[in-house]
Design a protein that fits this description.
heterodimer; A: mainly alpha; disordered N terminus; B: alpha/beta; Rossmann fold; Alpha-Beta Plaits; 6-stranded mixed beta sheet; 4-stranded antiparallel beta sheet; 11 helices; 13 strands; binds adenosine-5'-triphosphate; binds magnesium ion
Chain lengths: ~280, ~325
């Protein structure tokens, strides 16, 4: 019958006419970028979420330098140099943890998520889009931190390239670790739980290192933790890259840990997500 | 002729509740299937299965020849969905929403923008196109939602209670839009709680209750089955309700329903009964504030179809 053939072939019509557009190549990449664009627009409209990632590290930097600077290093200036690389890592880890999982949980509970799922969009793009858009938070947080650091008197002792490498390394680590909150978000699907985990996790990780004081001054149990803690390598690497000193070993260790986290948590998160939605 | 979509023996259980208990649905290409049922009947569950959002415990579903369980990705290129609750992003503007959905449907940037503009225009949202959806009224959101499900020009469109929350004018406008989509060849599944809506839009109606199909017919057939029209009489003086009930019972020869205070309703078989009621009321010198013929409500249709009430407050059918 004619109506059947119209329904099957009438692809040229626009609204109301039957027929979906033909698929185009690179669906994962294109859809992830389209969804990342959406998340960025949302961030632009609600810039408050950026603040969380900014305020804490800056607050810690200022507090630690003026409270402990004299006691730990003898002078606030020397202590600022010592502390800054650790705070840089704290910044990127926090930036990866505070909102990433939360946004995914909120999205999963909203109707727009059903619409994405009813469209020919790879499931993984929905996660990737959200996580890619977080890049803006890392960049803003790092720029602000360097600004405050310089205002207080911090100076990079190596060069611009090294400083950039340190920043990249810290962001890479924060990004890889952020897949852990993505996994937690997909599994728990609860805003409060996910925010709590995302907020608390960075502290034992980043503070259980030589961030604020050399490991030699710590009690045994804490030193043992600091020695196995992967964040120690990242802080050490950043120190080397920002202030000079040996870098090859810690940089390699940081990259290896980042790759490991990305692979393990990323895969688990994607698998859990595809299973649950 | 191959159906545009078809569901067979759908079963879905949630713990102890059986949301669907063997539901069959199907529609010919270019027609509108109305799925009528009270709260909790399983309408949304059935739509979510057909739209690949939910896997059934048993049964199969096919859209335009594609099995939605075996090949959900291909099925998603065929269907459009407007869920019962808003499925647009409130933080984005109307345009941004539709352009995003266009990109996700593989339209190029210019095509996506062009189609978004045309759809917004068609749904009377051109003026609000640059505003965030969170500032839209309930009716505007419904329309944006419907526009969003048309971005991909789907061959099969699922609409879950699309007119809920619309005022009567906007509702009829949406009815016209849905009809014109079907006339253009789109096959539509529409759920509703109103027989009137199914009657106005659907080529065929499937009535479901507690996860089971209890009737499937054309609107005319269904209306005949559930007793056609109902006459409604509301005397100006509530004290004369009993007199009015007498008149209606005498003329129609049917039991009357007086469960709503001050109002008398009864099924009528043909137009002559209505004329007769008008005459008799006049002869009795009774002034009325409401005198109408209407389709039976879902409650009344259910009572006839199932012998029990549609799971709501019981209406007593009295014979006085
Ligand atoms: N996720 C769920 N978990 C548990 N029970 C559910 C779930 N979804 C639906 N149900 C149950 O399944 C039954 C059918 O629900 P469904 O939403 O399909 O009804 P409906 O016909 O769409 O109703 P309404 O007109 O109120 O939208 C109801 O009893 C509901 O409580
Ligand atoms: Mg429903």
């Amino acid at each position: 019958m004619t109506s059947t053939s119209t329904a099957a072939t009438g692809r040229s019509r626009v609204a109301g006419g039957p027929g979906a557009p033909t698929p185009r190549p690179w669906p994962l990449l294109r859809h992830s970028l389209a969804l990342a664009g959406r998340s960025l627009t949302k961030t632009r409209r609600n810039p408050g979420v950026l603040l969380d990632a900014l305020i804490l590290p800056v607050l810690f930097l200022v507090l630690f330098v003026y409270l402990f600077g004299g006691a730990v290093a003898g002078s606030t200036q020397e202590y600022l140099q010592y502390l800054f690389p650790g705070i840089l890592v704290l910044t990127t880890v926090l930036a990866g943890q505070v909102a990433t999982g939360l946004h995914i949980v909120v999205d999963m509970k909203k109707g727009v998520f059903d619409r994405f799922r009813s469209m020919p969009v790879p499931r993984t793009s929905i996660l990737l889009g959200s996580v890619l858009a977080d890049a803006i938070r890392y960049v803003v947080a790092v720029v602000v931190l360097f600004g405050v650091g310089y205002a207080l008197g911090f100076r990079v002792e190596t060069g611009f390239g090294s400083a950039l490498a340190a920043t990249g390394l810290a962001i890479g680590f924060g990004f890889s670790l952020s897949w852990l909150t993505v996994l937690v978000a997909v599994l728990l699907r609860d805003e409060t739980l996910v925010s709590t985990v995302g907020f608390l996790l960075p502290f034992p990780l980043v503070f259980g290192t030589s961030m604020a004081a050399p490991a030699g001054t710590m009690p045994d149990w804490l030193r043992a933790w600091a020695e196995v803690n992967p964040v120690s390598h990242v802080i050490e690497a950043c120190r080397g890259l920002l202030l000079g000193g040996p870098v090859a070993g810690p940089v390699a260790a940081s990259l290896a840990w980042s790759a490991g986290f990305l692979l393990v948590f990323g895969t688990l998160a994607v698998v859990a997500f595809r299973r649950r939605v | 002729m191959r159906p545009a979509f078809e569901a067979e023996g759908l079963v879905k259980r949630y713990g102890g509740t059986t949301a669907l208990d063997g539901v069959d649905l199907q529609a010919r290409p270019g027609t509108v299937l109305g799925v009528l049922g009270p709260n909790g009947a399983g309408k949304t569950t059935a739509i979510r299965i057909l739209a690949t959002l939910l896997r059934p415990d048993a049964g199969r579903a096919v859209v335009d020849g594609v099995d939605v369980l075996r090949d959900p990705v291909a099925a998603r290129r065929i269907v459009g969905l407007t869920g019962q609750y808003a499925t647009v992003d409130e933080d984005l503007t109307g345009t941004e929403n539709l352009v995003l959905f266009g990109r996700l449907l593989d339209l190029t940037g210019p095509d996506a923008r062009d189609r978004a503009a045309r759809l917004l225009d068609r749904f009377g949202l051109a003026d609000a196109a640059g505003r965030r959806a969170s500032t839209y009224s309930g009716g505007m959101r419904r329309r944006l939602d419907l526009a969003a499900s048309l971005v991909g020009a789907p061959r099969v469109l699922f609409l879950d209670e699309p007119t809920t929350g619309l005022d009567p004018g906007k509702r009829e406008e949406l009815w016209r839009t849905i009809r014109s989509l079907a006339d253009d060849g789109t096959t539509v599944l529409l759920t509703t709680q109103y027989l009137e809506e199914a009657d106005a839009l659907a080529d065929e109606i499937t009535v479901i209750d507690q996860g089971r199909v209890i009737a499937h017919d054309s609107p005319a057939g269904l209306k005949q089955h559930v007793g056609g029209q109902t006459v409604v009489v509301r005397p100006r003086d509530p004290a004369r309700t009993a007199d009015a009930a007498d008149v209606v019972r005498r003329v129609t020869g049917h039991p009357v329903d007086r469960s709503r205070g001050g109002v008398v309703t009864a099924p009528v078989d043909d137009g002559r009964a209505f004329a007769g009621i008008v005459r008799e009321l006049e002869r009795a010198g009774m002034d009325v504030t409401e005198l109408a013929l209407r389709l039976p409500s879902l409650d009344e249709a259910f009572f006839t179809l199932t012998g029990h009430d549609a799971g709501r407050t019981t209406t007593t059918q009295e014979d006085s």
